[in-house]
Specification:
The strands form three sheets. An eight-stranded parallel beta barrel has the order 1-2-3-4-9-10-11-13, surrounded by eight helices. It has a two-stranded antiparallel ribbon with strand order 5-6. The protein has eleven helices and 13 strands. α2 packs parallel to α3 (about 80-90), α6 (about 195-205) crosses α7 and α8 packs across α9. α1 links the parallel β1 (about 10) and β2. It is α/β, with parallel strands linked by helices.
């Protein structure tokens, strides 16, 4: 049976903390050679390292097509600042930005800020969802043609095309409008890990891309169906979601067969399913799961980025391309175009022109 929908592939380019841009640029360019949808750069308040969003802003001018998705922790951070930073990344990358929303759960991380203690997981993921919600509203708070830049009249902006969001969340409120014009993609791509129950609810409600963790195609298909069901219950079109299986990969021994069942591999910091094998083995797994309709694609985290990403691109991806299962070039220029997602209409512009309210 042939695949019924395009295959999407993404890769993590993090690892041990690095403080030079060259290594991140080199890995992003390598992934771009393989026409991957996007690269991610993990981040956390629990470990040292440079800010992922700032690093990918440096990577942006050194790449031309690949999507750039940093992890942004929504706990202890201001949603207005998050939306501004992600919008800026979209501008400097020419419409290739996304962001992976994550939460901070420990008292040690809370003490770094000193504003509040650690909160239960359900409350943190609710806050993360609200951050994604208000972020989308802030990106819409400038209509696409709000900037006039009319030197003769001295008018820079059409105030009728700026909008207050007046958002009240469980832990914050935002009035708006944004200080950054509407991003090139309209709304940068929002990514959530939907593995846990509270996280899955927010993911299905607000994300464009959702990660799930599965040890079989049947489990992946069930998780994908659950995410789509929750999305539909919130009034979303499930076809506007892309569900990717998150997989940590170790391609260090090309002669070693993969573990007999992904669940038998070690769990890495409780963050995902582990695959060990060669590039061909990985291509076979991706082919089998995708052709069976279980997933929309994979987010791959190389255990050793410099070694394994090269084997993913020149081995696994090359084989998938040879089998006509994965593209050989980028058909568009934005991350939304890579993912087959439409540029969202501006909710406030629609309400203004239709005479309604948002």
């Amino acid at each position: 049976m042939s695949a019924t929908r395009p295959l999407h592939l993404a890769a993590e380019i993090g690892g041990p903390p690095r403080y030079d841009a060259a290594s991140h640029v080199a890995l992003a360019r390598l992934a771009e050679q393989g026409a991957l949808d996007f690269v991610t750069l993990g981040d956390s308040f629990a470990r040292p390292g440079p800010d992922a969003l700032a690093v990918l802003a440096r990577v942006a001018p050194a790449t031309t097509r690949i999507g750039l998705v940093p992890t942004v922790t929504t706990t202890h951070t201001e949603p207005f600042h998050v939306s501004s930073a992600v919008a800026t990344l979209d501008w400097v990358s020419g419409g290739r930005a996304g962001w992976h929303a994550d939460v901070s759960t420990t008292e040690a991380e809370a003490r770094l800020f000193g504003r509040r203690g650690a909160a239960p997981s359900a409350a943190l993921w609710q806050e993360a969802g609200e951050t994604a919600d208000v972020g989308a509203r802030l990106w819409d708070s400038w209509e696409d043609d709000a900037e006039i830049r009319d030197v003769a009249t001295g008018r820079f902006i059409d105030r009728d095309k700026l909008h207050y969001v007046d958002f009240e969340g469980s832990t914050f409120s935002v009035r708006g409008p944004a200080i950054v014009p509407r991003p090139p993609q309209g709304r940068p791509v929002t990514v959530f890990d939907g593995t846990g129950g509270p996280a899955r609810e927010s993911a299905a409600r607000y994300a464009d891309v959702v990660y799930v963790r599965a040890t079989s195609p049947e489990q992946a298909a069930s998780l994908r169906a659950d995410v789509r069901r929750i999305a539909a219950a919130h009034g979303r079109d499930p076809d506007t979601l892309r569900v990717l299986v998150a997989l940590t990969v170790d391609l260090g021994d090309a002669e070693t067969a993969p573990e007999p069942g992904l669940e038998s591999g070690p769990q890495l910091a409780g963050r995902g399913t582990y695959f060990r094998g060669g590039p061909v083995d990985l291509a076979e797994l991706i082919t089998q799961w995708h052709r069976g309709g279980a997933v929309d694609g994979f987010h791959l985290t190389p255990i050793t980025p410099e070694r394994d990403l090269e084997r993913i691109v020149n081995g696994t991806v090359a084989l998938l391309q040879h089998r006509s299962l994965f593209r050989t070039f980028y058909p568009g220029g934005t991350l939304r175009e890579h993912l087959g997602l439409a540029r969202p209409a501006n909710r406030y512009a629609h309400a203004r022109t239709s005479g309604g309210t948002s």
